[in-house]
Amino acid sequence: MTDDDVTFRASTQDGSYPRPQLVRPAWADLTGTWGFAFDDEDAGAHLGWEGTGIRSGRIVVPFPPESAASGVGDTGPHRVMWYSREITDADLDAAGHTDGRRLILHFGAVDYRCEVWIGGRSVGRHEGGHTPFAFDVTDAVDAGGRTIVVRVEDDPTDIAQPRGKQDWLDHPHVIWYHRTSGIWQPVWLESVPEVHVGALRWWTDPRAGTVTVDLELTGPVAETAVSVELAFEGRRLGAASVTIGARETTVVVAVPELANGQAYEELLWSPEHPRLVDATIRVGDDTVASYLGIRTAHVARGRFWLNDRPYYVRSVLEQGYWPDTHLAAPSATALREEVELIRSLGFTAARVHQKFEDPRFLFAADRLGLLVWGEAPGTYTFTPTAIERTTREWLEVVRRDASHPSIVTWVPLNESWGVQHIATDPRMQHFARALVSLTKALDPTRPVVSNDGWEQVDTDIVAIHDYEWRPEVVQRRYATDADIRRLVDSVGPAGRALILSGDVSDAPVMLTEFGGISFDTESAEDAWGYSTATSPEDFAERLSGLMAAVHASEALAGFCYTQLSDTLQETNGLVTADRTPKIPIDRIRAAITGEAAG
Q1: What separation in angstroms does the CA of 331 have from each of 14, 40, 80, 290?
Q2: Is the pLDDT assigned to residue 49 strictly greater than 60?
Q3: Taking burial as the number of CB atoms within 10 A of a residue's CB, which of 238, 259, 456, 589 is the most buried?
Q4: How many Cα atoms occupy the beta-carbon half-sphere of 351 within 13 Å?
Q5: Alpha helices for 53-176 (secondary structure H)
Q6: Which residues, at least 6 apart from 50, have a Cβ–Cβ distance to it below 8 Å?
Q7: How far is the C-alpha of 316 from the C-alpha of 560, rounded, in Å?
Q8: Residues 162-206: tens digit of each pLDDT
Q9: For 100, which DSSP code?
Q10: What is the rounded CA–CA span in Å between residue 357 and residue 496?
């Protein structure tokens, strides 16, 4: 592949590419119809399915078998399942595979653990239901193997797995949903040179006038030339070239335009101006396209700061769940439309709740201008296994997503899930602190919320969950800094201490879950919410009253409203499960922004 093959800008791609910040033009999409079978007796290995593939059933990948879109639609508990698909000549051509290149098979996410075979030859195993992985399948394919077989194990009752809101019971109840098992994000092939970029991480420093990229290379590296070029709206911003001899290297690019104190802000990324800088990286024979956003995010003086200016956060709780596809997105278009919907309702941010979201959602957030809080799916128990699994997946996702300018806050724990006795158990407090420290060791550029909701240790933001439905109580509780500090120093609204340790005297305070008004427009079974509206007008008045109380606070630095959409029995969304607003958008937007409806 030559340099001329990269003739596009990563920032203007259509959003379908599964890894939007490390793009090669040739790739083969392997989603679609696969062979499929449940294996409740766990007999597939004894029957040789890893070699023969699955002939009896079908599934549409990447939709989980519990979902209607998969063509299976079985929500019952199944611990083991198998998938298979043939690699065609057209797939190899689309991936750009030729002699001398390596063929890489990618999985966006498979819940929970799996083994993969090509032509009966095992090419690798992976554990972790929310993180991407890839295997070099060159030798297996060159040996004549064309059948991909995947065995997945996802124990419905294993509460030491990071599972977020996937129910451990057979039927969804209260705030928990149908499980999402097996393959639930894209599967794809690409062909790469022997020495190629395996991963990258962007760092931007507008104060120093630099952009830095950390590169992880794969293959035998020896005196390899590396170049990085940056461009914005077609004009060159800067470039750097080095010769390296190690698989990990750092390249610093000076951006002279950032030195102009009167004009540097014209390059910065924000929700109001989501400017993206395109990058081209060349490593030997490998050329990839990427993009980045130049911005800063920090907390100080009781405020959240974006690009060194105080920024009030208007966020919504985003479950990332669809009726027909569950945690898997219906399409890349649906992910983009989700971001557009959130912005149209007046929000500037989303807290993706108990889920590591598809990178294509983050691309849409980068491109359209939406701040994102990245939150880990929790376990339901505290054991050495749960600690190990949580930590491994969390660090993998921080590494995966740290280059996205949209992500401005990390949330490794929520409401003491997996650390239920953190208030009195020093082990759990040590674990929460360790997650904060590990996060900052990988990424010191963003604030970290140690345990969103309550019982926080060493947190950068005091994040409070409060589902009080009476506006006058909410307004009184959060009116002034003194009112909030009394709350922080005593017991929070949920009857738990808000802060267990750490100095939060300078930390911003945000109401990061509130609202939750149920308005059931579709007669959902066991409809549930934190309070209930009886009509569209009642819903609008309840929403406007709560939002007015929040906006009246002179001390809150932001909020996160619960929630964007109805999800099964949770009927507390601003929109229905199919994303239809329950009241006119202008009324929702006026309440969220604190402005009068037009």
Answers
A1: 12, 30, 26, 22
A2: yes
A3: 456
A4: 31
A5: 89-94, 138-142
A6: 44, 115, 117, 120, 122, 149, 151
A7: 5
A8: 999 999 988 888 888 999 999 999 999 999 999 999 999 999 999
A9: T
A10: 29
Segment 358-373, tens digit of pLDDT? 999 999 999 999 999 9
Tokens at residue 88, please? 């065609």
**φ, ψ at 536 (rounded to 5°):** -55, -40
Q: In what order do the strands lie in the sheet with 187-192?
A: 28-29, 187-192, 102-107, 133-136
In which element (H, E) is residue 426 found? helix 426-442
Structure tokens at 275: 């400017």
Alpha helices (runs of H) in 9-85, residue ranges in sequence order: 49-52
Task: Quote the Cα angle for 413-418-423, to 5°.
Answer: 80
- Is the pLDDT at 243 greater than 50, yes or no? yes
Per-residue pLDDT at 5 exceeds 50: no
The first and second tokens of residue 521, run together, are 């427009």
Instruction: Look up residue 360 and give its two tokens.
Output: 């294509």
Cα(75)–Cα(86) distance, rounded to whole angstroms?
27
On the question of pLDDT at 8 being above 80, the answer is no
Average pLDDT over residues 469-484: 96
> Which of these, 498, 514, 512, 422, lies nearest to 459 by C-alpha position?
498
* Distance, CA of 321 to CA of 158 (rounded, Å): 21
